[in-house]
Amino acid sequence: MFVERWTSTSVGMVSTVVLATTWALWTRYWKRYAQRSLEVSGPLMFRETETHVYRTLAGIQYQAQISLPLSYHSSGQTSYPILVVLDAEPCLFSLFAINARYLAYAQEGSFPEVIVVGLGYSDTLPEGSDTTQQQSALEHWQGLRPLRARDFLPTAADSPYGAEPLKHVSGHAEEFFDFIENQLLLDLTKRYRIGDIRCLAGLSLSGVGVTHALMRDTTTFTHYAIGSPSLWWDGEVMLKRATDWVQSDDIHKVAAKVRTTFEIL
Q: Could you check whether the bond before residue 160 is cis, i.e. omega within 30 degrees of 0?
């Protein structure tokens, strides 16, 4: 499922096409990729990519990987849309960044160049961790589950499918998006030439987080791309919240804030 708030057709197309392509590649090659060893010593780096580590007031660390447009350093004062990708590791940031660059090149004039930011955890391992450890992508992904539950899920609950208990860690999405709004984006705006168009993207558990962000009473992001969100979480609480949000007394505010399109893959 994709939900997107549209203020620019071209960036709306970029967000949807990139997420659709990423999801198709992810589902097609996941089983094969998940069995391969993954170096956890650092992120995949390619041309015009930078990395920054942030620490919240509560002492939580995050790693942000930034893929700049190839024209960034030769384009004067040109500003660019920004696409913030949650669940950046083990490979979503790379898939988004590569697809965004390809679309900007192959569809020149139709798709804008964008700054892609992948928010993850790779360089935030505890001191003394064995950074040469070999692990599969699936093991890496599963190891991040408590952190993802903490940051992306707005309520504290346990999985109904018998998975690892999460009630003791989940339910801190509001604090996570406060960090994005009041720390991450403020710093990125000082470092880079970011335009008025800002998109937030996520899938699975982070898709729940993006859904939560969509309904927050802020103007931090202008576009939202949500892929296969785990809306079953906590008795489908996000669907209930969405119903209340759409049916709120201030319906004109809701209508002005979001026009949604739904696509089922």
A: no
